Amino acid sequence: MNKAIHILQEGNNLKSELAREVLSKILRGNCLDSDVENFLIEFESKPYHWEDLIGFIQAMKESCISINKTIKKPIMDVCGTGGSGKNRFNISTAAVFVLAAAGIHVAKHGNYGSKRPNGSFNFLEEMNIPFQFNVNEINTLLKESKCCFLFARYFHPGMRHVVNARKKIGKRTVFNILGPLANPIDLDYQLIGLSSEENMDVLIDTVKALSLKKVMFCIGGDGRDEVSLLGKTKLIHVENKIVKEFEFDFSKEIEKIKHDYECGDSHENALTLINIFIEEDWEHPIIKHISINVAAALLCAGQVSSLVEGYEKSNELFKSGAVIKSINHYKKVAAELK
Q1: How far is CA 328 from each of CA 158, 188, 284, 324, 333, rounded to the nearest angstrom?
Q2: Domain boundaries, the chain
């Protein structure tokens, strides 16, 4: 730990092996909270380096409850790093069931909200969707319902050893971008939302070194970590270490949206979505927002050739009743496991 702090104080990066060694020690509970805090403070004082992030990801993967998937189908995750500071709907969580209805297997990795009850798993609770399952049950859910939810607090028990230091520091740290990259199951595709371009370059270099077939990053023009209805969204594909970048403007490509929709905490968001399903209000802006993010995931997984095609496909899944069937089927399989 002292060696790592000294290297950081000199303005150097740790390299992957030392980064892995230090975080492994922390996640085993072998460090004082004060030492973890000092280490994080020094680490946050300089730009991130991809080699350090790779070492951290290796440590998190090695210390987690890993899942050896039993299905031979490709698996993807859709998630964001948060940090927009805005009220937001749980877009990526709702998108899971649309993707499952489209035949995509999704292992959604996430947690409760860190500051407010607006995280993915707060939303699942409010929707009465169970998610606390062991490894065998997760594989059953993936096989039978094409989706599962991996609760970070359960699958990454070692992360409890950084909680106090993170609270003491009181701001976002490297763990906010590591979370999406530390899924306990080996993924094939991943859609990752970012609220800014701040760490874009280092994240591109990091995912190049991972084993995913394809990663797509999206940075919303309205400051949200998802494809935006308002303003331009930057999308970056990383496939076979080749990077391609393009912009998408929902208002120009699909439909002019004049005003943002209202959303709140997970309780309010769940009530809103339930009412949308009851009223079959498929023109609601939230459905449009879910659908354009589903489109990005479908494009990432190679299931459509454009965002417009993916958007239309998602809308049809809502209108046909396939999405609510997907939710109910997941609940049925989950209930049988309890």
Answers
A1: 33, 26, 21, 6, 9
A2: 2-63, 75-151+186-330
Which DSSP letter does residue 67 get? B
User: Cβ distance 296 to 152 under 8 Å?
Assistant: no
CB atoms within 10 A of CB 336: 10
Regions in the chain scoring below 50 on pLDDT? none
Closest CA to 310 of 327, 296, 325, 329: 296
Question: Distance between CA 146 and CA 140 in Å, rounded?
Answer: 9
**CA angle at 294 for the pair 288 and 298, rounded to the nearest 5°:** 140
Rounded (10°) angle between helices 16-27 and 2-9: 130
What does the block give as tokens for 35? 């030492």
**CATH 3.40.50.720 is the classification of domain 75-151+186-330:** no
Nearest Cα neighbor of 115 from 85, 92, 157, 91 is 85
The H-or-E segment that residue 151 falls in is: strand 147-151
∠ Cα 53 147 283 (to 5°): 100
Show Cβ contacts of residue 74 under 8 Å, excluding neighbours closer than 6 positions.
Answer: 105, 188, 189, 213, 301
- Give the global pTM: 0.95
Task: State how far the Cα of 77 lies from the Cα of 192, in Å rounded to an integer.
Answer: 8
Angle at CA 180, nearest 5°, toward 148 and 137?
A: 20
By the 8 A CB rule, do 155 and 65 touch?
A: yes
SS3 281: coil
pLDDT in tens, 121-131: 999 999 999 99
The encoded tokens of residue 34 equal 């004060």
Domain 2-63 grouped into CATH 1.20.970.10: yes
